[in-house]
Amino acid sequence: MAWFVLFGAGLLEIVWAFTMKKSEGFTLLVPSAVTIVAMIGSVWLLALAMRSIPLGTAYTIWTGIGAVGAFLFGILALGESSSPLRWLAAALIVSGLVLMKATSSD
């Protein structure tokens, strides 16, 4: 169950990164509010997951989901650049997440 909670925390991290970008420096009310709520929810779910998942594993996977998810959202929803090196970097992050999960004691 903790892994599902951690995945949810990672998804909320993607939400807050995306809505923070859309808030234009916290000058727009709705995206700013969504950002803050998603941040709180993401950290809260991360804390719950850390009850049974080791700190290093949980934090690495949480930030990795957020980083790769924000990368994908940037390309798909915001038209950010997509180059082979950026895709390689994202693939390396994902491979690191897989290795972290595979070597986790939980």
TrEMBL record:
Keywords: Cell membrane, Membrane, Transmembrane, Transmembrane helix, Transport. Gene3D superfamilies: 1.10.3730.20. InterPro entries: EmrE-like, Small_drug/metabolite_transptr, Small_multidrug_res. Pfam families: Multi_Drug_Res. Its main location: membrane. SUPFAM superfamilies: Multidrug resistance efflux transporter EmrE (SSF103481). Belongs to the drug/metabolite transporter (DMT) superfamily. Small multidrug resistance (SMR) (TC 2.A.7.1) family. Gdx/SugE subfamily. It is found in: Cell membrane. The keyword Protein biosynthesis does not apply. This is Guanidinium exporter. It comes from Chelativorans composti. The chain crosses the membrane at residues 27-47, 59-79, 85-103.
